[in-house]
Amino acid sequence: MKNFGKIAAGIAGCLACCTLAHADDSVAPKNPYATIATRNAFRLEPLVVAPTTPSPAEPLPKVLPKGIMTILGQAQVLFNVETLQSSPGTRGKVTSYVLIEGEQQDGIEVIHIDTTTGIVTFNNHGTIQHISLTDSASATRTVMPPPPAQIYRPIQTE
Q1: Cβ(77)–Cβ(99) under 8 Å?
Q2: Which residue among 36, 87, 106, 129 is the one 20 to 30 A from 122 at the CA level?
Q3: Does residue 153 carry a pLDDT above 70?
Q4: Spatial contact of 81 and 63, defined as CB atoms under 8 Å apart
């Protein structure tokens, strides 16, 4: 019981000190050093934040599906990815991939492979693309010029 009285007296004393410490806050000024900031002795200037302009979005690499194969019941798509040219007159880098549905590599994910229609759905760096095998084949097909007109005429006999 003797210890309980000492503990209670200590707690009461702490509470009294805390209330006295907060009582001085209302009488004293909020910040005695506020006049230093208003004088600006070091000629400090406020921080100016330059408006940020959004950078132009980089063009997406071109995805060219080459074919679909089914091995052990699992469809795979064969495709090339052509990155953009680094300088005019040079060809971009072409990389080949073989992926199944749900696989992702270098920011390109195969979402769905439709073996009946030949349409493959890609997630190309956040952009969903539905590319048909027939569209990519016609886009990459080299168009040959028509054959030249016949140079030699048949010899006519009289």
Answers
A1: yes
A2: 87
A3: no
A4: yes
Measure CA of the first residue to CA of the last residue in the chain; give whole Å.
Answer: 147
Closest by Cα among 117, 149, 145 to 133: 117
Average pLDDT on 74-85 reads: 86
Whether residue 43 has pLDDT greater than 70:
yes
Nearest Cα to 67, choosing from 115, 19, 24? 115
For tokens 């050093």, the residue is 33
Q: Is the pLDDT of residue 113 over 80?
A: yes
Structure tokens at 158: 């009289």
Ordered domains of the chain (ranges, CATH): 62-140 (2.30.30.830)
